[in-house]
Amino acid sequence: MSNKEGPGSFKKHKHGIFQSSQRKDEKFSVDSSSAIVMAFQSFQHELDARHDKYERLVKLGRDITIESKRTIFLLHRVTSENNMDEVLAEAESKLSAVRQKIKQVAQELVGEDMYQFHRAFTPGLQEYVEAVTFQHFITSRMLFSISEINKQLLFEDLQMPPTTEKAHTLGIQVTPVDYLLGVADLTGELMRLCISSVGNGDMDTPFELSQFLRNIFDGFSYIGNTGPYEISRKLFALKQSLSKVENACYTLKVRGSEIPKHMLADLFSAKSEIIEHDDVIS
Amino acid sequence: MSVIDMFVGLQTGLSADQDIREEIRKVVQSLEQTAREILILLQGVHQEAGIKDIPTKCVKAREHFNTVKVHLASLQMKFPSEQYYKYHEQWRFVLQRLVFLASFLVYLESETLVTREAVSQILGIEFEREKGFHLDIEDYLSGVLNLASELSRLAVNSVTAGDYTRPIRISTFINELDFGFRLLNLKNDSLRKRYDGLKYDVKKIEEVVYDLSIRGLMKDQPTLTAEK
């Protein structure tokens, strides 16, 4: 950064040229207290403060993303009824840790315009939406609504001194677009869940999932291109996930009656491996 | 609540959002129109005839800024004031251009750098974020950087018009501006990119001053500049 190393040496140099060429020594020595310089000094403080805040938010956003991703991986380990409660309890504790991070984001944003810094943490929020909706789907087989998510993100504010009489709740609200993008990512996870559940010999989940995914797909079709550009892009990936799940159900239905039950899982996992080869890598 | 119901609710929000954006776009278009008119008016100073009656042009430009005020006031009515940054991108460009025009106007009038407060006043908007529609600091700085390149052009043209003292005053001004921008720790964004262009303006003006001084033209007191 040239402006970091510059101020001292380079400026003096310029100064010199300027003075000798224009003989305005006395005019330029006043310079450091001139109105312009004073104004720019205050701009410096303002910009630095803003950039620092942005960086802190980016860091929090990354932490939120990482922890949410780990929660999703954890939730994929639900294989049978036996370990379900255990995994879900762990996921819940992880998610509440994530919520603490989100609370820190909210604290950074007190008195600020949320949209000014939105770009810094929106990937984190999307990932959180993905994790929390996934958890909710596993427990209740329903789509977690945006209002319920936002309800969980309201925090009691204990740090603020009770100077103002207003009730101290602070929180970030997930925007509809964040929510939709998170849900679109969720469908990718559900597709993975579908394929792995067949591997575990679970024959019902794929059908439930295909129904659920169709509902979501219908929902996104309803939104169409009224939303921002990112949504229509995700719609393409969603279509792919849906067709994978639908094909899986088809295979189960057609081949299920012909092939002995114990061989079904082998057949299916062999086939699905080809289909979702690229997803496995990621 | 069924999945489709949720999406219907979300869609309503999204299309309401889109309506707001369209409303904003309309106002921004008329703002751009006015900005172009002011620009044409002020650009007259680059012509030999124009440089002589700067004050008249400034008065006319001030009148145009009243139209700007009206448009900006109606822009504020289009969306909730706490969502300024949600729609910021839409008027960012035109606001920067207006800052440039206002700063050019103020420079021509008084040869000083317009303050943020003064620009806000000329545009009829708030100075502080808390109070509503305001001027973002980065937009202000971008507008000021545009002023620098306009002044480097003016330095050249004022020499052509026979005004040999103006480039020197511009040079002092730009150098102070350059000094100011050096104080800032800019991030690698669009503002930084524009700032990187400032040195070429500085260089251009220094060349003009050099040309004048080497020919001893600076000491002449041309009859043209009776104003200062």
UniProtKB/TrEMBL annotation, chain A:
Residues that coordinate or bind Mg(2+): E130, E189
This protein's GO CC annotations: Golgi apparatus; nucleus; perinuclear region of cytoplasm
Region (Disordered): 1-25
GO molecular function list: metal ion binding; sequence-specific DNA binding
Chief location bin: cytoplasm
Keyword Cell division on entry: no
Keyword set, alphabetical order: Coiled coil, Cytoplasm, Developmental protein, Differentiation, DNA-binding, Golgi apparatus, Isopeptide bond, Magnesium, Metal-binding, Nucleus, Spermatogenesis, Ubl conjugation
Keyword Magnesium among record annotations: yes
Protein family per UniProt: Belongs to the translin family.
SUBUNIT field: Ring-shaped heterooctamer of six TSN and two TSNAX subunits. Interacts with GOLGA3, TSNAXIP1, SUN1 and AKAP9. Interacts with the homodimeric form of C1D following gamma-radiation. Interacts with TSN and C1D in a mutually exclusive manner.
Purpose of the protein: Acts in combination with TSN as an endonuclease involved in the activation of the RNA-induced silencing complex (RISC). Possible role in spermatogenesis.
Protein name: Translin-associated protein X
Organism name: Hymenochirus boettgeri (Congo dwarf clawed frog)
UniProtKB/TrEMBL annotation, chain B:
Presence of the UniProt keyword Protease in the record: no
GO cellular component, one term: cytoplasm
One of the protein's GO biological processes: RNA metabolic process
Protein residues bound to Mg(2+): E150
CDD domains linked: Translin
Keyword set, alphabetical order: Cytoplasm, DNA-binding, Endonuclease, Hydrolase, Magnesium, Metal-binding, Nuclease, Nucleus, RNA-binding
GO function terms (MF aspect): endonuclease activity; hydrolase activity; metal ion binding; RNA binding; sequence-specific DNA binding; single-stranded DNA binding
Domain of life: Eukaryota
Location of the protein in the cell: Cytoplasm; Nucleus
Record has Hydrolase as a keyword: yes
Functional description taken from the UniProt entry: Exhibits both single-stranded and double-stranded endoribonuclease activity. May act as an activator of RNA-induced silencing complex (RISC) by facilitating endonucleolytic cleavage of the siRNA passenger strand. DNA-binding protein that specifically recognizes consensus sequences at the breakpoint junctions in chromosomal translocations, mostly involving immunoglobulin (Ig)/T-cell receptor gene segments. Seems to recognize single-stranded DNA ends generated by staggered breaks occurring at recombination hot spots.
Quaternary structure annotation from Swiss-Prot or TrEMBL: Ring-shaped heterooctamer of six TSN and two TSNAX subunits, DNA/RNA binding occurs inside the ring.
Family: Belongs to the translin family.
Name of the molecule in the record: Translin
